[in-house]
Every structure is written in structure tokens, then in C-alpha cells.
Design goal:
4-stranded antiparallel β-sheet; 2 domains; globular; 456 residues; Methylamine Dehydrogenase, Chain H; mainly beta
């Protein structure tokens, strides 16, 4: 009797006791979340517009991992490793309270994204990027840009052009590409494809082996890239930012490249190592244009913060700040002597000033009916395109107007000059390129820089 009762009790105990899961039913541990591959792209897409360098609502910025972990106006810690419920950042994206939730005035983030951020914090909020102070944009994986259309259905405004060193080819910013043309007959000779949507700055290296491009997708991404113009290939991306890059220039000897853009910064790269050697953050708004001095030791910048500034290329130190403009500055160029700077912008004037005596301008050139843009100096002349559809040519010797080229029906955003052929290329808002002989003021050619496009 006792034996039978013992067997029954043993059976019941075995029936209701917890049993280890078999290998077939064990749930594998979730892989660690990568900040660089998974979290950074999410933050750029969902949060950067309101919490970047230019706009930081609530005093909170997250354009770098370092900033992401710093409190804004609230003292609450944004990220507490291992504790998502104590992390203010997670609380604000996870709450169902529309008045409190981030992003403001937008749909709640998808549950999968909220869960991903929670899992990353639970796992310790680890950082796997190159540097906590690096921009999120610079550390995301390479972006696959779309292939441009084989045939354009419409012409697009020309916002960047550059002659190669011997003047036989002209690079023009296109749609997700750089198009390369024979300027004398207007024939398309090459295409460098799968680039950002628009290109705003182009510059060949002195040996012609590299073509630097400042480009981007407005409001979401900007790139500084070294392309291979000989083999027509998109090359290495030197930097990415969260909005467009606007200007690039090689130093006279080709050893350095400078770039400026919508993150208010100037970057200087060593070409031999293809690495950034200096980041200059002295402007309070977009850097629209940059230019090396003739000896390559100084750099002038034109900014939307209404200033033009000169920096020491070797140290990054600011040498002069010209504050004589009343509006945004759009273009800057050096006099060949290196003793004077020309800057122009929304005040519709060219200011000529001495960077060693930056308290007052030397001369003011007026006469514009619309904004002047990026200027070029060559062969003893200053060429200035403008929004009134006119390119003005000035003598550098006395700053007098030599000639105005015939008015275009559209804005003229950029010009390119080749001293060897003595040619001037003019880029128009309707997609047209004009090629001029600058000695005779003769129009040599005109074509639309849109592959396959035919006016209907």
C-alpha cells in the first residue's frame, strides 16, 4: 500500500515539476544591435531635422554619438545603458502621449524601430563607430545612389562646372551624376554616375587625375567625393554630412582639398592619404564658397552668416573676419597677388578687401540688379555670374567693368575659366552651357548639358 502511494506521488511530482527546455525549443539570444549600421541611419532619418547642428529643439542635439548622450534643456539623461525605461530618449519615442512624444507633429515611430532602440539600450548602448565625435552621417555605410536616367526628360539648372587642366573637357553637375562634355562641339564624352541628386561644386586636381565633387540630397545628405575623371568612375567619399555640401577647391599644388557646406564647417583633406586633417568650425551658417590663396597657405570662405573669413591652412587659425556685408555672402575669390579678397552676395555688391586690414573694405563694386554668385579670377580678370542672367567681367588691375555678356533668360549660377584656351564656360538655370572666347567676346558654342534631351 505504501509502495503504491509513493509511486503515485512520484508520478504527480514529475508531471507538474518544471522541466528544462529541449535544445529544439531553446530561443537563441538576439544579436547585438550595431549603432553604426542600425541606430545611426534611423536617427538620421527620423530625428536629425529637429536635433542637428543648425536646429536643436529643446537644446538637444544628436548629430554625433557624443551629443546623443548629452542632456538638452532637461537634466534627464537621454541614454542610460542597460535601462531603457530610465532613458529619456527612449521614453519620448515610446510614449503614446501625443503632446509629449517625439518626433513632434509626426506619426509615432514604427514599433520595430522603437523595439530596436530599446534592445540597443538593454544591451548596453554600445558604440561601434570610428569616434564618438564623428558625425552620424560620416559613419553610416555607403549609400547606394540611384542610376541617372539614360535620357533626360528635361534639362536641369547647372550649379557646378569645371574645365580639366588642358581645357579639352568640361565637367558639369547633372542629376545623380557628373556629365563630361567636349566644350567646343557640345558632344557628351563621359558620365560619372550613381552620385547624390545634385552637385554644387566641382574642381579638377592640377594633374587632372582627380575630380572633386561637393554634392548632396537636399535636407538629408551631403558628400565630398574624389572621382576618377579619366576612367569615369565615382571614387572615394571623404566625408558625409546631414545636408548638402556646397563647395570644393584643390590647393594650387594639388596636395590639399578644402570643402564647405551646410553644416557651417570647413574641411581640409590631405590628398596623399585621402584623409581629413582639419575641421574648422568658425562660421554660424552655411559655407557657400571657399578659395585657396595663390600660394596655398590661406583659405577664404563665404558664408550665409554674412561674413567672409580667412584661415591659415596649416593650423586652421582664423586670420581675418570681414563683416562688411549686410547679407549672406555667396562667393569669394583671391586676387592673383594674394593681397586682396573679393566677396559678394545678397547685398548685390562685390566687396574688395585686404585680409591683413579687415576693419574696412578697400573698394565696393555695385551695379548688380540681382545676387552675384561664385566668382572666378583668371588672366587678369574677375568673372562674376549672377541671378539677373548676366556674367560681368572686371579688370583686376583697376576693378573696372570690361564687359557684360549677353543676358540669359535664366539665372547664371556658375562659370568656369580655362586660361590655356582662354575660354569661359557659362552655366545657366535652363541647363544651357555657353562657351565664349574671352579675348574676342565671341560665342563659340551653346548646348544643353542633359544627355539625350531634345527640346519639345
Amino acid at each position: 500500500m505504501h509502495r503504491r502511494r509513493f509511486i503515485i506521488l512520484l508520478f504527480i511530482a514529475c508531471l507538474f515539476s518544471p522541466r528544462p527546455l529541449s535544445a529544439a525549443t531553446t530561443q537563441p539570444a538576439l544579436p547585438n544591435v550595431s549603432f553604426r549600421r542600425e541606430i545611426a541611419p534611423l536617427l538620421l532619418e527620423q530625428c536629425q531635422d529637429c536635433h542637428g547642428a543648425q536646429k536643436s529643439k529643446g537644446g538637444y542635439r544628436l548629430e554625433t554619438f557624443e551629443h546623443l548622450n548629452q542632456s538638452g534643456d532637461s537634466d534627464a539623461r537621454p541614454i542610460v545603458p542597460g535601462k531603457p525605461l530610465d532613458s529619456e530618449f527612449y521614453r519620448l519615442i515610446a510614449t503614446h502621449d501625443e503632446d509629449d512624444r517625439m518626433p513632434k507633429k509626426a506619426e509615432r515611430l514604427p514599433e520595430a524601430q522603437i523595439a530596436l532602440i530599446r534592445r540597443w539600450i538593454e544591451q548596453g548602448a554600445a558604440f561601434d563607430g570610428p569616434s564618438p565625435s564623428a558625425s552620424l552621417t560620416s559613419m553610416v555605410a555607403d549609400v547606394e545612389h540611384p542610376t541617372p536616367p539614360k535620357v533626360y526628360t528635361q534639362a536641369i539648372p547647372i550649379t557646378a562646372m569645371a574645365f580639366n587642366p588642358d581645357g579639352t573637357e568640361l565637367a558639369v553637375g547633372g542629376y545623380h551624376e557628373i556629365t563630361i562634355w567636349n566644350p567646343t562641339d557640345g558632344k557628351l564624352v563621359g558620365r560619372i554616375q550613381k552620385l547624390p541628386e545634385r552637385t554644387y561644386g566641382l574642381c579638377y586636381s592640377p594633374d587632372g587625375k582627380r575630380l572633386a565633387a561637393a554634392s548632396g540630397n537636399p535636407g538629408s545628405l551631403g558628400e565630398v567625393r574624389l572621382c576618377d575623371p579619366v576612367n569615369r568612375r565615382a571614387g572615394k567619399v571623404l566625408d558625409r554630412i546631414a545636408d548638402v555640401m556646397l563647395a570644393v577647391r584643390f590647393s594650387p599644388d594639388g596636395s590639399r582639398l578644402a570643402a564647405g557646406g551646410s553644416d557651417n564647417s570647413i574641411r581640409i583633406y590631405n590628398i596623399a592619404g585621402q584623409k581629413r586633417e582639419r575641421l574648422i568650425e568658425q562660421h554660424g551658417d552655411w559655407v557657400n564658397d571657399i578659395a585657396f590663396s595663390p600660394d596655398g597657405t590661406r583659405l577664404v570662405s563665404a558664408s550665409r552668416d554674412k561674413s567672409a573669413r580667412v584661415f591659415d591652412v596649416g593650423t586652421g587659425a582664423m586670420l581675418a573676419a570681414y563683416l562688411g556685408h549686410e547679407e549672406a555672402v555667396l562667393g569669394a575669390a583671391w586676387d592673383p597677388t594674394g593681397k586682396l579678397v573679393y566677396s559678394a552676395g545678397h547685398d548685390r555688391k562685390i566687396h574688395v578687401w585686404d585680409p591683413l586690414e579687415d576693419k574696412k573694405k578697400a573698394i565696393e563694386i555695385a551695379g548688380f540688379t540681382a545676387d552675384p554668385f561664385k566668382m572666378e579670377t583668371a588672366m587678369g580678370w574677375l568673372f562674376c555670374p549672377s541671378a539677373d542672367g548676366i556674367v560681368r567681367q572686371y579688370s583686376l588691375a583697376n576693378r573696372e567693368l570690361v564687359r557684360t555678356y549677353p543676358r540669359s533668360a535664366e539665372w547664371i549660377y556658375c562659370v568656369a575659366v580655362d586660361a590655356g584656351t582662354r575660354h569661359l564656360a557659362v552655366g545657366c538655370g535652363d541647363g544651357k552651357v555657353q562657351l565664349w572666347d574671352v579675348d574676342e567676346a565671341e560665342l563659340l558654342n551653346e548646348f544643353t548639358a542633359a544627355p539625350g534631351w531634345v527640346r519639345r
